[in-house]
Amino acid sequence: MTGRAKSTVGRVDLIGGGPGPIDLLTLRAWRLLTRAEVVVMDRLGPTDIRDHVGPDVEIIDVGKLPGHHPVPQDEINELLVDRARAGKRVVRLKGGDPFVFGRGGEEVAACLAAGVPVDVVPGISSAVAVPQAAGIPITHRGVAGAVHIMNGPSEVTEATLAALRDDSVTTVILMGVGALPRIVSDALHAGVPADRPVAIVERGHHRDQRTTRSTLGSVVVDAGLAGVRNPAVIVVGEVARAGLLLPDPQLAGDIVL
Ligand code: SAH
Q: What stretches of the chain adopt beta strand conformation (E)?
């Protein structure tokens, strides 16, 4: 043995971490996480991983706060490629699902371009799981038969307006707290009814989860009164109506303003 560093390339696995609790990881994600030599993690998804990996595992937090990116995406890509080239088994732990507004595609492309073996393990997306945690099915027979998922900071497109106008479509907004006033104003100007139900679910699947119920016409004021903050998933549509599943929404601990 010459003591030379391993010359074989390692690998990168992008794993979906789900909405936060570690037991919402898939078994495949768990297996990869517990065998990783390097874990590159985010602000959302499971954050309490130190206890679940060996003491020698390098944990790198590249967590992003809204509007503030401590580690730029190209540096994250570089980090993944460099560690894998050094022969490491790298797990890129991402909140929710890596391919739902997670920039997972960019990380996969960077690994492929560098010739680094890469794979993706799907995760439970907050787009589905956070409404669910508040008792909101994003589809419901006879109520909503289609779902439109949008990224709050993006432009409100015709496709989004069409979804918002259609009372059989659920619109799910991620990263939407800051953009809510603009989205609501665009929607109301485009003729979306002001009484369209809205639910804002903060910190879904965490102990301090909170749901604020309102309507399109009142949600900006109500969100302000409730002091709604990120991370939150905003659901617009009939499925967000209080009492859809539970006759008494107060039982679910909701704020109904
Ligand atoms: N890839 C992720 C989404 C990343 S975008 C996924 O599939 O879930 C980040 C946004 O996800 C946040 O701004 C928020 O809208 C949402 N989000 C993620 N986890 C959340 C949680 N536990 N509670 C509420 N919103 C959450």
A: 11-16, 38-41, 58-61, 89-94, 118-121, 146-151, 169-174, 197-202, 210-215, 232-236, 255-256
pLDDT digits (tens, 9 = 90+) for 124-153: 999 999 999 999 999 999 999 999 999 999
Q: The pTM is what?
A: 0.92
CA of 126 to the centre of ligand 1 (A): 5
**Domains defined for the chain, CATH in brackets:** 11-121 (3.40.1010.10), 126-256 (3.30.950.10)
Mean pLDDT, the chain, as a whole number? 92
Eight-class DSSP state of 196 = -
Catalytic (active site) residue 175 = yes
- Edge-first strand order for the sheet with 58-61 is 58-61, 38-41, 89-94, 11-16, 118-121
How far is residue 109's CA from residue 208's CA, in Å, rounded to a whole number?
36
Centroid of ligand 1 to alpha carbon of 7 (angstroms): 38
pLDDT digit string, tens, across residues 82-107: 999 999 999 999 999 999 998 999 99
Q: What are the CA-CA distances from residue 29 to residues 41, 86, 148, 206 (Å)?
A: 13, 22, 27, 20
Active-site annotation holds for 61: no
